[in-house]
Every structure is written in structure tokens, then in C-alpha cells.
Design brief:
This protein has 521 residues and is α+β, with helices and mostly antiparallel strands. Among the domains are: 88-196, Dipeptide-binding Protein, Domain 1 (Dipeptide-binding Protein, domain 1); 281-493, Dipeptide-binding Protein, Domain 3 (Dipeptide-binding Protein, domain 3, Roll), CATH 3.10.105.10. It has helices at 44-51, 75-81, 132-143, 195-198, 245-254, 265-271, 300-309, 312-320, 350-359, 377-391, 404-413, 432-435, 451-461, 466-482, and strands at residues 55-60, 89-91, 97-99, 102-107, 113-118, 160-167, 170-175, 207-213, 217-222, 236-241, 259-260, 276-290, 325-326, 367-373, 396-402, 419-425, 486-498, 502-503, 519-520. The strands form five sheets. Strands 11, 12, 13, 14, 15, 16 and 17 form a seven-stranded mixed sheet that branches. Strands 1-10-9-8 form a four-stranded mixed sheet. A four-stranded antiparallel sheet has the order 4-5-7-6, with helices on one face. Helix 7 runs antiparallel to helix 9 (350-359), helix 8 (312-320) packs antiparallel against helix 10 (377-391) and helix 13 (451-461) runs antiparallel to helix 14 (466-482). The longest helix has 17 residues, at 466-482. The chain starts with 43 loop residues before the first helix and ends with a strand. Residues 1-47 have low confidence and may be disordered.
Length: 521
């Protein structure tokens, strides 16, 4: 059931999901508890015809970083477990928040109390019914309200001051201050209240985890007790970890993978004859992220020079066949009310870049190391092109390709890098991409520090007045652009290759893959 309107003043944002003309569709933990025996590798067609079950293989670019849904770091992990864990609400295909574990929501007139009614008959994968006790535990855990004193695991939920159980099916969430963006963060996974004791993070989604082979694959099995009648359609999905684009092409062409998202323009061209190609947009912001704390990138003029030297349109054309959306700051164009179009601030100008470098004390340029994760071909191709572009301005680039786990540990967590090509995902909350640039935010891996920015974000984060929030968010985007916190390139397209016998594939404007609707004809 779609949440159409929660209360006066509560806005349900709908990101526009742009469908491109290329739609050619025919009419890190090392071990987990395995729930099924190992089987020999085979294609989905073999599995379907030989066993009578419906099974497919989904190719992904990275391994799983955590099986605890509240501690997952990477978008790639969350993308998989969208099918395993659910919150009180979750995003739907139109970019609205829809009921999931909850079936109803009432918000008090002052915006401080959210009273959720739980859906009848929702079961965890361990067979137990979901109760208000589980919801309270899950939200307390995310908000840092557990008696153990564990810190908040979802920073946006620190606004929750208490969670009360009204009865077995009703939970009242009280905020310290009203915030109409809160609904977007209440998609935090609901897990059993005893999870910290048992170590088993059972979900409520359409699929449950099966055998996991670190670095190789994860099996997802059908949740036969799923509360949505008739779903999921498939009996199982093998999530195959494919760590580079070349291997992905081999697996696709050999029939070992049934569908694979995030193709580059070259991959799309090579596969388009044999696969259905489905294109859409998402909430994935690709950038050349700059470590503002290391020389010479701690010099504003150097960062601005890099912005002028990069040709975003060339990147979009070469890597994504012009399917990306060019941006000028950290905000999604789909969040129209809040988006500040700053794409004209740094028009490509190599002469201007050289002039700024001279003013900064680097008349002959400097050496720059750009780190990138090798498992995402879009970032590999983008890094190569940026290297060529920056060298025109006298910046000598060394490319450093690393595996995903190394990128997370060295770049994202350790902040031991100069520059990196990667992408960060958003949520439907417009403030999500801006929050990471506050000085004390754990996600601020570019080490951006600006007191005016922090003060303005705090104002935006503590008001429930949409007009004020819109004004502040647009100004925050301008600060990021003027300070050249990073080079914001584009919102990446999602280009998916899928076998022609797969039906029901559904696109979302957020970084997820919904396996529940996929079927085999």
C-alpha cells in the first residue's frame, strides 16, 4: 500500500525515474550459517529444466561487507539485502515510501510522534511473527537507545528520543524535533529482538540467505511465508561475485549469469544483440572525490583547477553513452524542489585550470594519484579518461586500481588517498547527500571542513519548514561547488543486461535490485 500523504506538511518525495530510449526489453564477514548444501555451478536454464525449480544467477561487482543490516557499509551490499531485510516502510518503484512491516502510520499534529500499526502475519525467516518488541529493539539499536549504550548505527535516527510499545502490534516513535524527512530513514531493517544474543539477523523480505562462499557467491532462497501473495516468483537466486568487467562479459556470453547491472557503453554495445538491455536512472552520484586534507588538494585553487580541467560531458558520452545526468554539486536532479543547478559553474576550461594552478604555486602542474575500485567498470573507464583530461592541464596522474575491500579500508574508512573515482548513493531524503560533508560525519571521507556549511546544515536539519529547508539545501550545494569539495560528475545510469527469458524486471530510482518480481518464461 502506497503512503500517499502522511499529514499536512509531510512531503513524500517522488524522484523522477527517467527511462531511456535504449530500453530493448522483449514484450565483510567471512562466514555465515549455510542453509542449503553446495551444488555444482550451472546456468539458470539448466537449474530450471533439470530440477523443476526457478533459479537464476545475478552478477554483482563486490563481495558482501556485513550480514548485520544495520552495519552494512557499501551500496552494493545493501542492494542485495533489499531482498532480505525490510523496515516499517521501504521505497517503491516510483520513488515513494510504501508500507512494508507496517500497515498504517499516524503522525501527531506537532510532527513529534509516529504511531505505526504492524502488518498482520509478518514472519521473520526463522518462522517467528514480528511483534512490537522486535520493532522497538531494532529502532533503539539504530538510534543508540539500547541500555548497553551502543552508539547510534543510523545517524539520522538519533532524532528518535524514545520508542514505546503500545501493544503487540502498535509502536509509538517520539522525535526530539519534528522532521518531515524522518519517514525516509524509517526503512531501517526490523530484526528479532534477540539478534544481539543469537547473532542471527533474520529478515522479513521475499528472500532469505542460504549458502555463502566468501568472494564467490551467496544463495538467496524463496521466503515461502512472504506476506505479499504470489511473490517472489523465483525459488532461488545465486548472487555471483564478479570482480571485473572482462570476467562479467565472459560469464554473460557463456550463459553463467542471467542478469548483470551497471554496464558501460562498450559493454552495452557488445551485449545488446543477445540480451534485453534495460536502462533507468538511480541515486548513484559519481565524482572525482578529492581529499581536502592532503596537499596540494588542501589548496582551494588547486581543487578549482581540477574542476575546470575535467570535461563531464566527454565522460558521460564515452562511459555512459550520454545516459547519465550531469550535475554540479551533491544533490540529485530528481529531487526537483531541492536541486540547485550548478552545472555551469565549472565549464571545461583548460586555460583557466592552468591559470589557477599557477596562482596556487604550481605553474608546472603536480603529480596526483587517483585510486579507483577495479570491480566497477564505470569507475575504471572514468578514471582513465580523467587521467587524460587532467594531463592537458599539466597534472600528471598515476592511476591506482584496487579491489573493493581495499578501497573501503584505505579510502573510505582510512582516508589514506589523494583522489578517487567512485560513486556514493543517496536515499529519497534530500538531506542525505549533504549530511556527509559536515565535519564530524563518519561518511565525510573527503575531509571537507567548513564552519559555515556545518552551521547551515544544522539549521536545515532542525527545521520542519520546507521553505527554509529548500533555501538552506540549495545554499549548501553552492558552498560545496564554490569550495570545490570534489568534482561532481553525474548521476549514473543503470544499464542492465538480462536474458530474454526473464520477465517482470522492475526498475527503481534508488540503488536496489528487486528480485521478487522477476520470473522465467
Amino acid at each position: 500500500m502506497r503512503i500517499k500523504r502522511l499529514m499536512a506538511g509531510i512531503l513524500v518525495l517522488a524522484m523522477s525515474c527517467t527511462m531511456f530510449a535504449c530500453n530493448k526489453e522483449s514484450n565483510s564477514e567471512s562466514t555465515t550459517k549455510a542453509t542449503q548444501n553446495s551444488e555444482k555451478s550451472q546456468t539458470s536454464e539448466d537449474t530450471t529444466t533439470k530440477t523443476g525449480t526457478k533459479s537464476i544467477v545475478w552478477g554483482v561487482q563486490q563481495d558482501i561487507d556485513n550480514f548485520d543490516p544495520h552495519k552494512m557499509t557499501s551500496a552494493g551490499t545493501k542492494e542485495i539485502f533489499f531482498n532480505v531485510y525490510e523496515g516499517l516502510v521501504k521505497a517503491d518503484k516510483d520513488g515513494n515510501m510504501a508500507y512494508a512491516v507496517a500497515s498504517d502510520l499516524k503522525i501527531s499534529d506537532d510532527g513529534l510522534k509516529y504511531t505505526f500499526t504492524l502488518r498482520d502475519g509478518v514472519k521473520f525467516h526463522n518462522g517467528n511473527l514480528v511483534t512490537a518488541k522486535d520493532v522497538k529493539y531494532s529502532l533503539d539499536r539504530c538510534a543508540g537507545l539500547l541500555p548497553s549504550g551502543e552508539k547510534a548505527l543510523v545517524s539520522a535516527l538519533k532524532k528518535i528520543s524514545k520508542v514505546d510499545i503500545i501493544d503487540d502490534k502498535t509502536v509509538e516513535v517520539t522525535l526530539s524535533a519534528p522532521d518531515f524527512e524522518m519517514i525516509y530513514y524509517l526503512n531501517a531493517a526490523i530484526i528479532p529482538y534477540e539478534a544481539d544474543v543469537t547473532g542471527e539477523f533474520s529478515g522479513t523480505g521475499p528472500f532469505m540467505t542460504g549458502e555463502y562462499r566468501p568472494g564467490e557467491s551467496l544463495v538467496l532462497n524463496k521466503n515461502k511465508d512472504y506476506y505479499v501473495a504470489g511473490y517472489p516468483k523465483l525459488d532461488s537466486v545465486t548472487v555471483k561475485i564478479v570482480k571485473d568487467g572482462s570476467a562479467a562479459l565472459v560469464y554473460l556470453k557463456s550463459g553463467a549469469i542471467d542478469f548483470y547491472p551497471y554496464l558501460t557503453a562498450d559493454q552495452e554495445e557488445e551485449l545488446s544483440g543477445d540480451f534485453d538491455i534495460v536502462c533507468s536512472t538511480t541515486d548513484d552520484v559519481q565524482a572525482l572525490f578529492l581529499n581536502n586534507a592532503v596537499a596540494p588538494l588542501n589548496n582551494l585553487k588547486v581543487r578549482q583547477a581540477i574542476c575546470y580541467a575535467i570535461d563531464k560531458n566527454e565522460i558521460n558520452a564515452f562511459v555512459n553513452n550520454n545516459k547519465g545526468q550531469i550535475i554540479g554539486s551533491s544533490m540529485l536532479p530528481g529531487l526537483k524542489d531541492y536541486y540547485n543547478d550548478l552545472t555551469s559553474m565549472y565549464k571545461t576550461d583548460v586555460a583557466k585550470a592552468k591559470e589557477l594552478l599557477k596562482e596556487a604555486g604550481y605553474p608546472n602542474g603536480f603529480e596526483l594519484e587517483i585510486t579507483y575500485p577495479t570491480n566497477y567498470q564505470i569507475h575504471v573507464d572514468t578514471a582513465v579518461l580523467i587521467q587524460q583530461q587532467l594531463e592537458k592541464a599539466g597534472i600528471k596522474v598515476t592511476l591506482k586500481g584496487v579491489d573493493w575491500n581495499t578501497w573501503v579500508s584505505d579510502v573510505y574508512t582510512g582516508r589514506n588517498y589523494q583522489a578517487t573515482v567512485c560513486a556514493v548513493t543517496s536515499q529519497l531524503a534530500p538531506g542525505y547527500l549533504l549530511a556527509r560533508y559536515t565535519a564530524d560525519n563518519s561518511k565525510n571521507f573527503v575531509n571537507f571542513s567548513n564552519e559555515a556549511y556545518d552551521s547551515l546544515f544544522n539549521e536545515a536539519n532542525t527545521t520542519n519548514d520546507k521553505a527554509v529547508k529548500v533555501k538552506d539545501y540549495k545554499e549548501l550545494q553552492k558552498i560545496l561547488a564554490e569550495d570545490a569539495a570534489s568534482v561532481y560528475i553525474e548521476v549514473c545510469p543503470v544499464v542492465v543486461a538480462k536474458k530474454k527469458n526473464l520477465t517482470g524486471y522492475t526498475t527503481y530510482p534508488v540503488y536496489v535490485q528487486d528480485l521478487s518480481t522477476i520470473d522465467i518464461k
